[in-house]
């Protein structure tokens, strides 16, 4: 069920304190490993898609158990004991955090025993059961490869695999029904996916059933799954694979998750912070709107209980800054000067059907790579498609800018704001360069943070759409 992952000793950078720092509680977890030769042992835990270090002890006596002990609230979830040579996973549930493991180096997991923890007795037993059945299925799959052309023999092997899968399902059902409060059962529920009834044959109906029942049996208000490697893949599948990748649909999917998680302060807080950060920085064109929608729905409506006045003010300011330059909005007017610094340039005076707004800094490393590429695309494809490029420098050093124009022979519309009379840096959310927008014939934003290679395809799509309408 749970695969060993590469240990990542990282520092979690978030805007809130960990639940572990609150409500201290005594824990004492010991482990004795026969013939253990490593000099150090680590205690750690899973959270979301990473692993974190919790404690370290030195191994000084081969004959004694190594003990992790302290005063700290440890949330329910999956933990691990790790050394350079060995790795053991265990769980913490609703029981006293005082228990002991014993094993040896001939088979750390296979010979693992625990005293003082019913949760881990069940967890170890289940892992061992799954491990055995997995090996049997793998052996049968290998046998299948040798039986090509022999349908009867293949059927016999496939039937055996079905029996093994049935045994696993039966074991899981027994745990879910009789031990639903145990961590192992919550992990099973979090890992399992909906089984589509055989009487549903239509492909679309199958998809709808799968999506509708995707969270059956999964309690998103229980933070146990947050402290495991199981939650993120499940939520990613729902948001990224089962949901159409347009802002409104993604916002609806994430809101569905958050509305279930809101009953658990830590779960809700972690997920909201994670999703707003992800979509504020998303590389997917237009998907920043998800950040705006989530911020308005949860932060600005007072549901983010941890956010003080200063945080809410910053969120509101960020939303106000991003809203005017989202896809579908009319591009804010620009009041700039040409390279002679005498002639005004207004967006409204550009007569081309399409406009690419290109904000750049001549000294920016990325800009030095992007500008020549955009110029080449302008000459080879865009200009003939009635696309003009309005290239706006973000610097006020006009001599350097003019030298750059001359050096690259930039023959599109070059513009600057040397006296900072325009508010384009704010209105177009220029937090880094280069930054590109594509405007249609109505000067509506149809592309944002778009790749150079995508501009021609977007223009072709818009032209085709216009032709169909006319």
Keywords:
single chain, 470 residues, alpha+beta, Immunoglobulin-like, 4 domains, four-stranded mixed β-sheet, 13 helices, 15 strands, disordered N terminus
Description of the molecule:
- By secondary structure, the chain is α+β, with helices and mostly antiparallel strands.
- The chain folds into four domains: 98 residues, Sandwich (Immunoglobulin-like); 66 residues; 123 residues; 135 residues, 3-Layer(aba) Sandwich (Glutaredoxin).
- Helices cover 41% and strands 18% of the residues.
- Strand 9 and strand 10 form a beta hairpin.
- Helix 8 runs antiparallel to helix 9.
- The N terminus is likely disordered.
Short précis:
The protein has 470 residues and is an alpha+beta fold.
Secondary-structure blueprint:
Blueprint (H helix, E strand, L loop, with lengths): L25 E9 L5 E8 L2 E9 L7 E6 L5 E6 L4 E6 L5 E7 L8 E3 L2 H28 L5 H28 L4 H9 L11 H10 L18 H11 L5 H15 L3 H16 L7 H12 L9 H14 L12 E3 L6 E3 L7 E7 L4 H18 L4 E7 L4 H11 L4 E3 L8 H4 L7 E5 L5 E4 L3 H18 L1
Parallel strand pairs: 1-7, 11-12, 12-13
Antiparallel strand pairs: 1-4, 2-3, 2-5, 5-6, 7-8, 9-10, 11-14, 14-15
Helix pairs in contact: 1-2, 5-6, 6-7, 6-8, 7-8, 8-9, 10-13
How are strands sequenced across the largest beta sheet? Answer: 13-12-11-14-15
Rg calculated over all Cα atoms: 29 Å
Number of helices: 13
Q: DSSP strand (E) fraction?
A: 15-25%
According to CATH, the fold-level topology of the largest domain is: Glutaredoxin
Q: Classify the secondary structure makeup into a structural class.
A: alpha+beta
Protein name: Peroxiredoxin
Pfam families: AhpC-TSA, DUF4369, DUF5106
Subcellular location: Cell envelope
InterPro entries: AhpC/TSA, DUF4369, DUF5106, Thioredoxin-like_sf, Thioredoxin_domain, Thioredoxin_ResA/DsbE_sf
């Amino acid at each position: 069920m749970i695969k060993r992952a590469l240990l990542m000793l990282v520092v979690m950078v978030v805007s809130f304190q960990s639940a572990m720092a609150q409500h201290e509680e005594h824990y004492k977890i010991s482990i004795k490993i026969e013939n253990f030769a490593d000099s150090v042992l680590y205690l750690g835990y899973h959270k979301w898609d990473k692993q974190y270090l919790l404690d370290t002890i030195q191994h000084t006596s081969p004959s004694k158990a190594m003990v992790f002990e302290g005063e700290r609230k440890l949330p329910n979830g999956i933990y691990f004991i790790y050394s350079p040579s060995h790795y053991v996973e265990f769980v913490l549930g609703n029981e006293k955090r005082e228990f002991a493991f014993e094993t040896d180096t001939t088979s750390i997991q296979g010979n693992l025993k625990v005293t003082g923890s019913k949760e881990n007795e069940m967890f170890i037993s289940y892992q061992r059961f799954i491990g055995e059945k997995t090996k049997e299925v793998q052996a049968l799959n290998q046998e299948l490869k040798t039986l090509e052309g022999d349908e009867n023999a293949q059927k016999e092997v496939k039937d055996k695999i079905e029996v093994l899968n049935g045994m696993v399902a039966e074991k899981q059902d027994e745990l879910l029904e009789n031990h639903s409060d145990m961590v192992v059962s919550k992990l099973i529920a979090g890992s399992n996916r909906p089984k589509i009834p055989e009487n549903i044959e239509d492909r679309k109906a199958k998809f709808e059933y799968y999506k509708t029942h995707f969270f059956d049996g999964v309690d998103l208000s229980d933070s146990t799954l947050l402290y495991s490697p199981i939650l993120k893949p499940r939520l990613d599948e729902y948001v990224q694979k089962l949901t159409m990748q347009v802002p409104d649909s993604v916002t609806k999917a994430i809101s569905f998750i958050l509305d279930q998680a809101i009953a658990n302060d830590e779960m809700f807080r972690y997920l909201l912070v994670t999703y707003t950060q992800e979509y504020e920085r998303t590389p997917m064109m237009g998907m920043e709107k998800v950040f705006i929608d989530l911020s308005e729905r949860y932060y600005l409506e007072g549901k983010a209980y941890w956010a003080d006045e200063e945080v809410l003010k910053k969120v509101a300011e960020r939303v106000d800054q991003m809203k005017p330059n989202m896809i579908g909005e009319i591009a804010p007017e620009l009041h700039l000067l040409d390279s002679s610094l005498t002639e005004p340039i207004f967006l409204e005076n550009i007569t081309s059907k399409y406009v690419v707004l290109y904000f750049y800094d001549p000294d920016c490393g990325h800009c030095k790579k992007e500008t020549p590429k955009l110029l080449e695309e302008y000459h080879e494809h865009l200009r003939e498609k009635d696309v003009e490029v309005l290239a706006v420098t973000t610097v006020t050093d006009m001599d350097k800018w003019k030298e750059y124009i001359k050096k690259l022979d930039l023959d599109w519309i070059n513009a600057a704001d040397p006296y900072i009379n325009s508010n384009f840096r704010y209105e177009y959310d220029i937090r880094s360069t280069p930054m590109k927008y594509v405007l249609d014939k109505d000067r509506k934003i149809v592309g944002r943070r778009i790749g150079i290679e995508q501009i021609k395809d977007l223009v072709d799509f818009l032209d085709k759409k216009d032709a169909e309408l006319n």
